[in-house]
Amino acid sequence: MTVYRQIGVVGSGRVASALALALGPHSAAPPLLHARSPGRLRAAVASIGRASAASGYQELAGACDLVAIAVSDDSIEPVVADIARAMPAGRTPFVFHVSGRSGAAILDPLRMKGARTAAIHPVMTFTGDPASEVRRMAGARFAITASSEAALAEAHALVRLLGGVAVEIAEDRRPLYHAALSHAANHLVTLLSGSARVLEATGAEDPYGLLAPLVRAALENSLTRGFAALSGPLLRGDDETVRGHLSALGNYCPEVLPAYRAMALATLDELERTGSRAPSSALRKDLESHDPTP
Predict the structure, then answer these.
(1) Cα–Cα distance, 278 to 150 (Å, whole number)
(2) Is 96 buried (19+), middle (13-18) or exposed (0-12) by CB count in 10 A?
(3) What is the pLDDT of residues 74-100, one digit of tens each?
(4) How many secondary structure helices (H) and strands (E) does the chain include?
């Protein structure tokens, strides 16, 4: 089992706490945590148990041979600069951040001082229960991007230590990778919120409860079958049904209509791309129209 001399974590939020708890058993000394907010730092240390608060970046950079940066995307650069200034000469820790947006290049000030650097993004959501999140990391995917072959090998080893599965993403494809995740997870929330609002307009009670079995089945089918899981009027070619949707949404929920049009057009594009069916040009024209009541 890999054992580091000491593990350091910058941050006091959900991901930082989960990482400190998960990596703690692989640290000979209790993990060191550092964060801007003293109150949140104390709470994070208390929740982890076997952990200590670092007095500052100098202690963290001088003592740790593994440093995880688990802060907001916009805070990574200033944190990296602070660690680089504090890092003693001759230190060669492995430093990684957990942002999905950025690759390893953002850590270059540390790499130039001798650190091995990588981006290691856990592809999961963190809810604030570190113990359960440690368990969920086992089997989760981690997108890794490294600054060198040695750092890449260490990133793979760290993901194995967490029980995860590493997926390599090239530096210049990190924004594309993150866009895919945001499109799937974030836009799904918006999509369901719009559907629930439409159901509320029908007078239905508990719209999310009504949607749950249908959406869960669609999600599971999509994850196992891809686009072949599609069902509904666009696949069947029931153009008048779709026109009825447009009219009803225009009359009762016009705020949801643009999203419906966009998703319907995207579905038609995918149907055409996969050769599932050739959509009618008349329906496409109706969907592209800005008139809310076709």
Answers:
(1) 50
(2) buried
(3) 999 999 999 999 999 888 999 999 999
(4) 13, 8
Q: Provide the token pair at 120.
A: 């290691």
Q: pLDDT, tens digit, for every residue of 109-158?
A: 999 999 999 999 999 989 889 999 999 999 999 999 999 999 999 999 99
Distances (CA, A) of 160 to 66, 129, 137: 15, 21, 10
Q: Which of 133, 163, 153, 139 is nearest to 70 (CA)?
A: 133
For 52, 70, 100, 109, 201, the CA distances from 84, given in Å and listed in that order, are 21, 16, 22, 6, 56
Does residue 122 sit in helix, strand or coil? strand
One-letter amino acid for residue 61 of the chain: A
CA-based nearest residue to 94, from 61, 129, 142, 49? 61
Sheet harboring 52-53: ordered strands across?
Answer: 52-53, 32-34, 7-10, 66-69, 94-97, 116-122, 141-146, 165-168
Q: Count CB-CB contacts under 10 A for residue 290.
A: 7
